[in-house]
Design goal:
Radius of gyration of chain A: 13 Å
Strand content of chain B: over 45%
Radius of gyration of chain B: 13 Å
Oligomer: heterodimer
Number of strands of chain B: 11
Shape of chain A: globular
Shape of chain B: globular
Structural class of chain A: mainly beta
Number of helices of chain B: 0
Strand content of chain A: over 45%
Distance between the termini of chain A: 36 Å
Largest interface: A-B, 25 and 23 residues
């Protein structure tokens, strides 16, 4: 059973471009969380999704950021018109039920905006 | 809303010394989970505590959940260089399913 897969591992974008980060949860997991981590800082909650539904997006900026978790395929975190301040590590985690169960993290995508 | 405060932010210890990190909340926690993130790595689940006053051990690691379910601690006995990393507590809300992390405590161990 493969773990949580994130790709790409490293992504470089110029200011104004779009960044698409992908997360394939573990098999059988229907709950996905996205977190952002700046160097030397903690994990900031962005969004919580179940299949085809956004459950909580209170941590995600209202502009330029969007997330989806379609019925088929990976969860996508999309950042439009990236700015230097978007440079960070973005981690995805999945869990089978989201209630009282551990979350399994992917290796993260390190986004650098130049 | 959910918020867990974690202290200290950094801790440097000599190998063999003990280490403790604390997690506090102003509200009653549904549960507490602990994760470890090695430098350059991703968070890895260590344990979950659910019951008031619960204590769990994993080798040299001891996890406690306060009687009022408002605080938790992770204690490492006789640290080793392999213990280096950042330790996070997190609350998984039983209402919303949202997993919120504390700020983390970064442990450095001098050999």
């Amino acid at each position: 059973n493969a773990g949580v897969m994130q790709n790409p591992r490293h992504l470089v974008r110029r200011r104004g471009q779009e960044a698409r980060l992908r997360c394939s949860p573990m098999k059988g997991h229907s709950h996905v969380y996205w977190y952002r981590q700046l160097p030397e800082e903690g994990l900031k909650f962005m969004v919580y999704l179940q299949k085809e539904n956004i459950i909580d997006e209170s941590g995600m900026p209202k502009e330029r950021f969007s997330a989806e978790f379609p019925k088929e395929g990976p969860s996508i975190l999309r950042i439009q018109q990236v700015v230097r301040g978007d440079s960070a590590a973005y981690f995805c985690a999945s869990s089978p039920t989201g209630m009282g169960t551990e979350a399994f993290f992917g290796q993260g995508t390190r986004l650098t905006v130049v | 809303g959910q918020q867990v405060m974690q202290i200290p932010q950094y801790q440097h210890v000599q190998e063999g010394e003990d280490f403790t990190t604390y997690c506090n909340s102003s509200t009653t926690l549904s549960n507490i989970q602990w994760y470890k993130q090695r430098p350059g790595g991703h968070p890895v689940f260590l344990i979950q505590l659910v019951k008031s006053g619960e204590v769990k051990k994993q080798k040299r690691l001891t996890f406690q959940f306060g009687e009022a379910k408002k605080n938790s601690s992770l204690h490492i006995t006789a640290t080793q260089t392999t213990d280096v990393g950042t330790y996070f507590c997190a609350e998984l809300s039983s209402n919303t399913g949202k997993l919120i992390f504390g700020q983390g405590t970064t442990l450095q161990v001098k050999p």
